[in-house]
From TrEMBL:
Keywords: ANK repeat, Coiled coil, Ion channel, Ion transport, Membrane, Receptor, Repeat, Transmembrane, Transmembrane helix, Transport
GO biological process entries: regulation of cytosolic calcium ion concentration
UniProt key word Transferase: no
Residues forming coiled coils: 134-161
Protein name: Putative short transient receptor potential channel 3
Segments annotated as ANK repeats: 48-80
Location of the Transient receptor ion channel domain: 83-145
Transmembrane domains' residue ranges: 255-275, 295-312, 368-386, 406-424
Molecular-function GO terms, alphabetical: inositol 1,4,5 trisphosphate binding; store-operated calcium channel activity
Xref: Pfam families: TRP_2 (PF08344)
């Protein structure tokens, strides 16, 4: 053990040739015995659970590790902390602290860069999986959080160092396009692609790059690997493949080109549909074109939301002709008290007390669907389909693990709920106005005296206050559209990272306000015990 810690290879080789070790070579799977673990007294400077191979891995001695591997030595994977097998129970019962430290020693050996390089067919994948396992242990084993995090960070640095050794773009592409997500898949993937010189086949172009290994790095939070200059350069090469001079263009030109692409999007889509492998089809399928068109489409969606709000405000000022038959001034006065209690005269001069008019116009909010709403619904259908495709590709667990996807879920649900409520309210409003115009001559008097339940039910949907939940849901969905989705788009602009940090806090305040304001407002949908005199039209 001392020779291993000092790196004395020749002394170690001579010791291993001793007859004692030669006899034990055929009977023991590893150097050292399990019984050493259960000794109460330890006179050695090395821990009793540390084997020579583990010590060599701790010291990152490549030549010594190779010697032990040639002898058939291995490092067994530790059991999970909650394992209830007899082996773990006995070790835990003998000394719990020693059992926990033994797991740390084993993981420190397994995470050694030299050991991973000599034993793994896919070192980067092995480091990814081990780093994720160590991160989970850091969350469960709170007492040794620091040690497990340091080991996890060591694995992340190892993958970054391996990527740093790439000398050309083909080697970087070969690493980033590996599709294996487990060691079994990595071994099966490596075998059929070995060329005659023992090296894997390398892609010649950037078309068809899957970047599965990069996606796996994002999934396992490998920030050092993703942010490495070689990785970022490869991504930039793919991103600007059809537009190599994009970065040198002036800012107004960068704004003008996406607008032209979005306006002519149906033409591009049709060409891509009939000829996806043509030159135009390849240009349309580039990430830059997809991102710019989606961004412009989303800003058009925000502009449509603004126009919808403008139309909603103008709808409040429209006068809807209710054609209320007036038998006497008592009915007219009751209508004014119910629909316009803040005035001592008829609303907006629509009715005149001096004459027995046959109709009266009151300011009721219009709840119909206009052409802006139809445009918004089409865009929402596209966004909903995009979320469905993302769930299909990633799966429910990975999809729900992202906070941005939860923002999209809330936003789409609020939009769908607001439009469903809007259609429902519009139907009820229309039925109430028809009842008011054709089937009742004393509507306001009956409502004021609570004598006609049918009239009361129809009056409930004539009040402006019933539209508050529709407006509230639409308001929150608009806010999530402007703040939530645009927050992660800020990440593409390095000069707006400070604004991104502020938006995180704003989104948190938004959700807290939503919980306090929206749910108590749901009582507007139940009209039991409502006082028509105190309700504004």
């Amino acid at each position: 053990m001392l020779a291993i810690s000092k790196g004395y290879i020749r002394i170690l080789s001579n010791l291993l040739k001793h007859p004692v070790y030669q006899r034990n070579r055929g009977t023991l799977n590893r150097l050292g015995t399990i019984t050493n673990y259960y000794q109460r007294i330890n006179h050695s400077k090395f821990d009793q659970d540390v084997t020579p191979l583990m010590l060599a891995a701790h010291c990152n001695e490549v030549d010594i590790i190779r010697i032990f591997l040639e002898r058939g030595e291995t490092i067994k994977q530790p059991h999970v902390p909650s394992c209830q097998c007899n082996y773990c129970k006995n070790r835990r019962k003998f000394d719990p602290l020693k059992h926990s430290k033994s797991a740390i020693h084993t993981y420190r050996a397994l995470g050694s860069p030299a050991y991973i390089s000599l034993t793994s067919n896919d070192p980067i994948l092995t480091a990814f999986l081990l780093s994720e396992e160590l991160s989970q242990l850091a969350r469960t084993e709170k007492e040794f959080k620091k040690e497990y995090r340091e080991l996890s960070q060591q694995c992340k640095k190892y993958t970054s160092d391996l990527l740093d050794m790439c000398q050309n773009s083909k080697e970087v592409a070969l690493i980033l396009n590996q599709e294996a997500t487990s060691m079994e898949e990595g071994l099966n993937e490596l075998r059929p692609h070995l060329a005659g010189d023992g090296r894997p086949d390398q892609p010649d172009t950037y078309q068809g790059s899957t970047l599965q290994r990069l996606k796996l790095a994002v999934r396992y939070n490998q920030k050092q690997f993703v942010s490495h200059p070689h990785c970022q350069h490869h991504l930039a090469t793919i991103w600007y493949d059809s537009f190599p001079g994009w970065r040198q263009l002036a800012f107004p030109v960068k704004i003008f080109i996406p607008l032209i692409l979005y306006i002519t999007c149906p033409v591009w889509a049709f060409i891509y549909w009939i000829a996806p492998t043509s030159r135009i089809g390849r240009v349309v399928s580039t990430p830059l074109v997809k991102f710019t068109t989606q961004t412009v489409a989303y800003f058009c969606f925000l502009a449509a939301l603004f126009l919808q709000s403008v139309f909603a405000d103008s709808d409040q000022a429209l006068l809807i002709d209710c054609d209320v038959p007036i038998q006497d001034n008592e009915e007219l006065a009751a209508c004014d008290r119910i629909f316009c209690p803040e005035y001592n005269k008829s609303c907006y001069g629509g009715c005149d007390y001096s004459n027995n008019t046959s109709s009266c116009r009151y300011d009721l909010r219009q709840t119909g669907i206009n052409f802006v709403d139809i445009f918004i619904l089409i865009l929402l259908a596209g966004m909903f389909w995009g979320e469905v495709k993302q769930i299909w590709m990633e799966g429910w667990s990975r999809y729900l693990a992202s906070g941005w996807n939860w923002i999209d879920i809330f936003m789409l649900n609020l939009y769908i709920g607001s439009y469903c409520a809007k259609v429902f309210t519009h139907i009820k409003n229309t039925n109430a106005i028809e009842y008011l115009n054709t089937e009742n001559n004393s509507f306001c008097v009956d409502v004021e005296k609570n004598e006609n339940q049918v009239a009361l039910d129809h009056f409930y949907f004539l009040r402006k206050g019933n539209y508050i939940n529709v407006s509230l849901m639409f308001m929150w969905s608009e806010y999530l559209s402007c703040e939530g989705r645009n927050t992660y788009r800020v990440a593409y602009m390095d000069w707006l990272h400070g604004a991104r940090c502020g938006r995180y806090k704003v989104i948190g305040i938004c959700y807290r306000s939503l919980g306090r304001c929206f749910f108590p407002g749901s009582d507007h949908w139940s009209h039991g015990g409502a006082d028509p005199k105190s309700t504004h039209a």
